[in-house]
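sorry for the late reply, my laptop died twice this morning and i had to redo everyting from scratch. anyway the thing you sent over, i finally got around to it. pasting the sequence first so we're on the same page, its 648 residues, then the predicted structure underneath. double check i copied it right bc i was rushing
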Amino acid sequence: MKKKPSRPLCAFFLVGALVSMSLGAWTFSAFGAENAAVAGPGAPISTVPVTLEASLYAISPEKGGGLLAVLLFSPAEGWHAYSHVPGDTGEPASADLRLEPSGAALPAFFPEGRQKADVFEPEKTARVHDAPARVFVALPADPSPGSRLTGTLRLFLCSKTSCWPAALPVDLDVADLAARGLPLADAQPWWPEYGAARETTARVAAMGEAAPSPAAATASDAPAPSSASGMKLFPRSFTPALEVAGIFKAAVLAFLAGFILNFMPCVLPVVSLKLSSLLAVCSHEDAISRRRILREHNLFFALGIMAYFLVLSLVLWLAGLAWGQIFQSTTLTLTLTVVLFALTMSLFGVFHLPVIDLKMPATATGNSRSGAFLTGVLATLLATPCSGPFLGGVLAWTLLQPLFTVMAVFICLGLGMALPYILLAVWPQLVRLMPRPGDWMISLEQGMGFLLAGSCIYFLTILPREKVVAALFALWATALATWIWGRFTNLSQSRLHRTLVRGLAVILVIGATAFAAADRPPPTVAWTPFSQAEFESRMGQGNLLLTFTADWCPTCKLLERTVLGPDTIGPLKEKYGLTLMRADLTGQSPQALALLAALGSRSIPMTVLFPAGEGARAPLVLRDLYTTSNLEAAMAEVFAGGEPDENK
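ok and here's the structure:
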């Protein structure tokens, strides 16, 4: 069964949509004033949630002289315009202004705006203007006859439900206003804003200059070619004493690093519990049996460590892998996490796991050799992700050497980690230096259980993000399986009963782990980029969904991740035989903007449903934010009578 898409609760979004739909006609105008700023004529623009006033002032000679045009824009209530300063989201404000008839380009100086977190992605911030703000344009002191300030001020505005690109025309009769006499700009209360705007605009320009163009990056500022291209590099180490250039130093450092691994948080719980359980067993035996148990356990434990490092050296050299790269395998990491979680359940008394068991047994019976060997392998496997800080310089040199050198260094690494257990095997009397068994060991056992659970959390962080939920399901299944094992089996029952119940538990764990580790490609749907020719060829030929979006529109991105995501739109595409088309307004797209206007809007996001046949002339429009249920209901209304095109 296909997963039913989530339906976000958008009650307050719908309220915002009503607000945006109720916006009246907003007029671009220029206002005159007696003995104050005199504004030039402006062309009205309807249905734009911002107003623009253009004014002209004179700057006194003491402040540099000249004329200063002020463009005051005021976003509508509930809307904000993005500042000229680039942010994590939104499109910066810009202007294309000229002094006619000469056609000379004029720079515009923008205010900084206030920093604000994005409504839909709080981790992203941008500088915005949600109150009236001024853009300044410096002009020459003596304009020629007939001079006019013309051009376009481009603002990108967003509310809680939609975004709107606004291209506001500027047309200010500079010569006529200058002839009437102008108020002084430096006498106005906003005069300090002019200096701040110049600094802000200069800083933004410097930011743009600091980022080299692709052409420049491939020229003088291009990174130095690697040694593969023929250039010899001579890197220097910040810690030259730890750098390795020979097998003797590598072997010594590897031996010391291996010994330190016994005390790492990844390994210490396993080692401590195994030695403690061994002490508990030995306390019930005579002197001869105690020595035999200690020798046997420690030798096989050390053998497990050595075997792991030897096999690992072969795998890394033959496959050309880096140290720790084995944990890039999702299956291995997930399997290890499940094993650790099962050991945690064992420490908390949920069940008794044979072979690799860290709980304190009552007697020395059981397969102690294989258990010691596999526990040594497990402890060493857990040490791998913790060993990077100690082995960086050693492995950087070692893994580039011949196989014999790699194996020799890894054997020294294994000997260092196995040293305490080899010493205990050779001199069992050293066990007298360890604390006597007692009730404290039960507390140690349970405390180490929490440490192992913490190790499970660490390994979950290694997994890809999309695998975490599946991994948690595998751990839940493991908890259920261990409870079944411990609750419904015991030694008083028949072997057949124990085998069936425990086999069921094992199958449950293996199945859940395999399900979590399986690679499931994320659902994808194909979107056709908008073009006028493509749109006209498909309109009316089949069911068509057209959505308008832009990178600077956060509400559009929210819809793309939720309602228009693959999990939601994919089943609807199949159900109605849809053609999916996306019109991207991130850059200038006159054809898409013209179609948007023909559909009665200048605001995005907007999704339009065109049914097959003559009904395509009367499409259904979903404006601003909408829910999955809104989209499904709209499709049922528009497409229910149409025959889906099976070829799409």
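The chain has a mean pLDDT of 77.
thats about all i looked at so far, will dig more tmrw
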